[in-house]
Amino acid sequence: MMTIDNYKFAGKKAIVRVDFNVPLDENGNITDDTRIRGAVPTLKHILEEGGALIIMSHMGKPKGKVAAKYSLGQIKDAVAKALGVAEVKFAPDCAKAKEAADALKAGEVLLLENLRFYPEEEGKPVGIEKDDPAYEAAKKEMKARQKDFAKVLASYADCYVMDAFGTAHRKHASTAVIADYFDADNKMLGYLMEKEVKAVDNVLSDIKRPFIAIMGGSKVSSKIGIIENLLGKVDKLILCGGMTYTFAKAHGGEIGESIVEMDKLDVALGVEELAKKNGVELVMAPDAIIADNFANDANQKVAPSNAIPAGWQGLDAGPEAQKKFAEAIRGCKTILWNGPAGVFEFDNFCGGSRAIGEAIAEATANGAFSLIGGGDSVACVNKFGLADKVSYISTGGGALLEAIEGKVLPGVAAIKGE
Ligand code: AMP
């Protein structure tokens, strides 16, 4: 497999898929540039080696239509600054950038407009539901259009570099299909991808025990696949955040107005059963910090997670829970964290997530390997000033979880030729 270190970029044009899906405020200012910084090593390397750069990315979910608020033109100057170049040229239509790409000289940078302004990028038919009899035909047609779109993108460059770990679990035109139009010697993973894949390998191939996973966030439904998979790997599993109340409800608890998935009560019970069968210690919050409103300044008090009065909702792990979580994490040698233990965006309800972050930092100082993934857990670690106290922060959420599940990511498979 070609690697970025072995490839000779001098005089070549490289098209690089990055993840510049950065959060913007209402004025179009970047509020967190972690993802841009993540791609810089790869981009700078290509420029320093004498290559020209064509950068492509998506931003947000414009669903195949042009939407000014998702224009990558807004971040052009920030990219120039991050790369230390005077100018980043901008192609306002990613599918009509051949001329601009052809004119590019060594050391120059061209940023393409948001790939997802074209439905071909994701390759999903638009305006037709899955149960429509014409859906299959529409899907087939869109897949053909996706190939054509990928071919156009590929025509801009001599080589392709995949460095968007955050979208590597998607088989999109720019993350996977495009690779078909380059031979094995002219496609490779970027540094960020290499690093992310290695971090996952580190966890999976050399698990030092005890191995604990901490899964939080709002819903059990979106994480059930990874939870079931982890139950075959970990020694302990903390389940926290909003999913706590689906478990409490499944046992007949009172959960007030807390977030709950009533159609997933049996799923929750199934998770508990599987944990028991596999000898995994399942750790859940015995108490909660409850609020009389979904707001930072709501009134709050502590209640058992299964005895929350009407009109109140659990927004964070309670003091007992925080102690229990920290104890479970202490002494572990491999730690995976995805998803907050409460509504951490509210300063008054971030204590549970903070307790987890601090316990992970302490365990890491004592020799554990800790891997943090998913936008919200990364935001937590940053919020609590713990970023340099954990072993590895992944830029991927879904991609990280799928990789941990043992799936080969389409973005990796496309380069490896699998
Ligand atoms: P997810 O996207 O499923 O990983 O969930 C992340 C979100 O879950 C964050 O925005 C949290 O605010 C939210 N969350 C965590 N705990 C709770 C809770 N107890 N009630 C409501 N939302 C929660």
Helix content: 25-40%
As an assembly, this protein is: single chain
**CATH homologous superfamily title of the largest domain:** Phosphoglycerate kinase, N-terminal domain
Radius of gyration: 23 Å
Strand order of the largest sheet: 3-4-2-1-5-6
- Count helical runs: 14
| Secondary-structure content class | alpha/beta
CATH topology descriptor of the largest domain: Rossmann fold
The CATH class of the largest domain is Alpha Beta
Bound molecules: adenosine monophosphate
What shape does the CA trace take? globular
CATH architecture of the largest domain: 3-Layer(aba) Sandwich
In round numbers, the mean pLDDT is 95
Structural domain count? 2
Describe the model.
There is one protein chain. The protein is 34% helix and 16% strand. By secondary structure, the chain is of the alpha/beta class. Strand 15, helix 11 (351-365) and strand 16 form a beta-alpha-beta unit. The longest helix has 20 residues, at 135-154. It is globular.
What are the defining features of this structure?
single chain, 6-stranded parallel β-sheet, alpha/beta, binds adenosine monophosphate, Rossmann fold
Provide the fold topology.
Elements lengths: L12 E5 L16 H15 L3 E5 L19 H8 L5 E3 L6 H5 L6 E4 L6 H4 L12 H20 L4 E4 L24 E3 L1 H15 L5 E5 L8 H7 L5 E4 L4 H7 L3 E2 L9 H14 L2 E4 L2 E5 L8 E5 L2 E2 L4 E5 L1 H11 L4 E5 L12 H15 L3 E4 L2 H9 L8 E2 L4 H7 L5 H7 L2
Parallel strand pairs: 1-2, 1-5, 2-4, 3-4, 5-6, 7-8, 7-15, 8-10, 9-13, 15-16, 16-17
Antiparallel strand pairs: 11-12, 11-14
Bound molecules: adenosine monophosphate (AMP).
The site of adenosine monophosphate (AMP) has 15 residues, from strand 14.
